[in-house]
TrEMBL record:
GO annotation (BP), single: amino acid biosynthetic process
Superkingdom, taxonomy of origin: Eukaryota
Name of one Pfam family that matches: 2-Hacid_dh
Residue ranges of every copy of the D-isomer specific 2-hydroxyacid dehydrogenase catalytic domain listed in the record: 41-349
Name by which UniProt lists this protein: D-3-phosphoglycerate dehydrogenase
Record domain D-isomer specific 2-hydroxyacid dehydrogenase NAD-binding: where: 136-325
Amino acid sequence: MTIYRLAILDDYAGIARQHFDQISNLQIDDFPDTLDPATKDGLEALATKLKPYHILSTMRERTPVPAELMKRLPNLKLILNASARNASIDMKQATTQGIVVTGTKGNVPTDKKSLDALPDLPPPQGHSAVVQHGWAMLLALMSRLPPDDYALKTNPAAWQSGLMTSVAGKTLGIVGLGKLGIGMAKVGVLAWDMKVMAWSENLTQDKADAAAEAAGLPKGSFQCVSKQQLFEEADVVSLHYVLSERSRAMVGKQELAWMKKTGILINTSRGPLIDEDALIEVLKAGSIKGAALDVYWEEPLSQQSPWRKTRDWAKSEVLLSPHMGYVNEGTMHRWYQEQAQTVERWMKGEDALVRMN
């Protein structure tokens, strides 16, 4: 029998192996530390490390698999991706080399065996953990939870050292009215009676009305405005935009200067949507009330990253989380469960359930 070698990349939580362990004729190795193939040293280390493997288990937004890396992996036959998209895998090169790239759906399984093997279930259809995390960050920032928690645990005399900010009735600015932007906006309307403004390059009021009605809200619940009006009038600006060369640094010095001094910026989408240097400058000056970031320009953050030292330089409030928006227990386990099922099908010569190339 052929023995296949599987490399599990970037499994920070250490949960993947249990889903692959039951597969016969599979040798498994874990590589939890992310390396960047965009650097010469990172590419060399990855190519050397992964050369023996037939199968790679990847996690989106972690180690990229560019053409330069694939060309140096002659044994590679199958790439397992978490979710149904991953812009950091070079599909054209994979196809050229005859490498199969597969994805996952992340849906709730219907068979009892799969259900029983999961410690928790993914969110139901129509719901997103990213929206939950975005609201958790926003509410924590406006309710002063991080600084008050820190103060109570480190200062015996600390008690009510500041004022929280009410969310209700504020204006929520949504940059990118897609599935996640709509989810964020819907909570704002229904839970907090917020006024919702939305902007994207191709958004019209008709499209905003259709989005509102699809979410079960009255037409007019989302107001389509210009980019400048949104940044000038919103109390909270939340980013939900697809990263591309066109959208890179779409929030720069001008957009940040438009924001209210009491404004809050939330980014659970992609770090490079914001001009990093411009944001650091604004936070150093205290020009906005605060920022809550789940995504960064460099991931994972290096030990030298200025974001690890915001207590030393930021006058604005800064709340950080390590790209946790999609990292919920149910979805992560289900993705790895689906990857394992794909390996079993592939080893039998069967078609993948989610083929990406």
